[in-house]
């Protein structure tokens, strides 16, 4: 924050008006909130305001107990909110916090109440003091000191929360916390880039591949340029993630536009299912596992057999399959095959995926029935962790995918980020 720009000055008022007057004249704020005890309140209108050539907009905040720290912090936070509202100022208004005057409790409370805001702390000091250098600064000897916000030293709590949110795939929260950390001047370039990258991972986790890839390309170089060398292994994993993201996005476009196979895309949906399971969201995980099975059949039929499972021409279906398997009517006189029948059709066409399905049909049927009666399908019972784990193992085996080939998002360590 530029200290030269008009801001809202929040200052504690003690027995001497001199430091308050000096601060107002030095900072020239557009608004002043005077934080007073019962004993110092009168000096605002009797001594401070009359001594100013140009008066800023001002309000008086009278503390209910200037000797109680918690009460003072509560009063200041409430009083500031009321002042911002009364002056029609946004919550993000730049603040100057001057804690020169008032009791020690008032000064401590002001810092505590404002430290999470966009604030520049100031203190009026000087070389000449009364009481053999131990008392108040003598009039005319004042000097303004600009002090760092202690929030920067205490930001480890937010950094820990941000790392935990990112590692738990709560990317919206990770982005919010990284922005807060950056806004308080804690390695702003690094944490702003980390906020951007958190948004990219969130978009990816929501299957918005193109937007995520664009943000990856923008955020990762910024992050690497602002980071210490100790984070090199993390960036190697992130670069690998970025490549996997672009591969999945490219393959999906290839399938949709040119009916090309997309194994990396299927693996990415599986990876998404694993993240939901790790979060304890078993219904969400099973819904994604079911989607992988459904998409695998659709892709095999279209790419290998030239058949669209959502719009099958009856004349292209083997007669023996039509005789044994009633199909649902689709659009324009075509037929539609759901998951099980899609695999049965693949088996009838001697496709390896269909033949493999027939080997696992009984197990798949029992597990998918549990899915069909789940909360996110047609029933009312949540999926259990055991059912989710069994279906996950079966999908990996059935599609011949190794779990070590699944993309893993990085986990952040707060100790490394500090």
Helix and strand topology:
Elements lengths: L7 E6 L4 H10 L3 E6 L5 H7 L8 E6 L6 H18 L8 E4 L5 H11 L4 E8 L3 H4 L8 E6 L8 H12 L3 H13 L4 H18 L3 H18 L5 H27 L4 H16 L3 H24 L13 H6 L3 E2 L5 E2 L2 H10 L3 H21 L12 H14 L15 H4 L1
Parallel strand pairs: 1-2, 1-4, 2-3, 4-5
Antiparallel strand pairs: 5-6, 7-8
Compute the CA-based radius of gyration.
Answer: 32 Å
Order the strands across the largest sheet as they lie in space.
Answer: 3-2-1-4-5-6
Element-level helix/strand string: EHEHEHEHEHEHHHHHHHHEEHHHH
Pick out the low-confidence regions: 128-135
- Sheet-strand content, in percent, reads 5-15%
Share of helix, binned: 55-70%
User: With helices defined by DSSP (H or I, 4 residues minimum), what is the helix count?
Assistant: 17
Largest sheet: 6 strands, mixed
Average predicted confidence as pLDDT: 88
Beta strands, count: 8
Structural class: alpha/beta
The figure for the number of domains is 2
* First-last Cα distance: 23 Å
The gross shape turns out to be elongated
């Amino acid at each position: 924050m530029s200290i030269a720009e008009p801001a809202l000055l929040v200052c504690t008022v003690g027995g001497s008006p001199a430091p308050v007057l000096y601060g107002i004249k030095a900072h020239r704020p557009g608004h002043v909130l005077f934080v007073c005890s019962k004993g110092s309140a009168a000096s605002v209108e009797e001594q401070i305001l009359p001594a100013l050539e140009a008066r800023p907009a001002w309000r008086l905040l009278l503390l209910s107990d200037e000797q109680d720290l918690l009460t003072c912090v509560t009063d200041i936070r409430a009083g500031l909110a009321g002042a911002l509202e009364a002056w029609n100022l946004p919550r993000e208004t730049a603040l100057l916090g001057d804690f020169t005057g008032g009791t020690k409790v008032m000064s401590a409370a002001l810092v505590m109440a404002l430290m999470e805001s966009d604030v520049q702390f100031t203190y009026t000091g000087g070389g000449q003091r009364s009481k053999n250098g131990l008392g108040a600064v003598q009039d005319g000897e004042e000097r303004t000191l600009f002090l760092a916000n202690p929030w920067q030293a205490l930001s480890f709590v937010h950094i820990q929360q941000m790392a935990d949110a990112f590692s738990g795939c709560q990317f919206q929260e990770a982005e919010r916390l990284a922005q807060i950390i950056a806004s308080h001047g804690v390695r702003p370039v690094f944490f702003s880039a980390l906020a951007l990258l958190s948004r990219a991972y969130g978009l990816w986790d929501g299957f918005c591949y193109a937007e995520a890839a664009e943000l990856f390309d923008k955020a990762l170089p910024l992050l690497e340029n602002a980071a210490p060398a100790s984070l090199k292994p993390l960036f190697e994993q992130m670069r690998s993630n970025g490549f996997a993201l672009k591969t999945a996005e490219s393959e999906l476009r290839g399938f949709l536009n040119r009916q090309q196979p997309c194994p990396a895309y299927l693996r990415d949906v599986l990876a998404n299912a694993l993240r939901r399971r790790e979060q304890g969201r078993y219904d969400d995980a099973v819904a994604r596992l079911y989607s992988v099975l459904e998409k695998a059949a659709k892709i095999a039929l279209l790419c290998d057999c030239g058949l669209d499972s959502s719009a099958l021409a009856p004349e292209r279906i083997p007669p023996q399959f039509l005789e044994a398997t009633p199909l649902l009517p689709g659009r324009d006189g075509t037929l539609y095959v759901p998951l099980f029948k899609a695999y049965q059709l693949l088996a009838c066409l001697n496709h390896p995926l269909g033949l493999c399905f027939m080997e696992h049909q009984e197990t798949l049927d029992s597990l998918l029935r549990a899915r069909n009666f789940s909360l996110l399908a047609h029933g009312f019972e949540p999926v259990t962790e055991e059912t989710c784990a069994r279906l996950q193992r079966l999908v990996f085996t059935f599609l011949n995918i190794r779990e070590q080939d699944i993309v893993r998002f990085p986990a952040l360590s707060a100790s490394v980020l500090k």
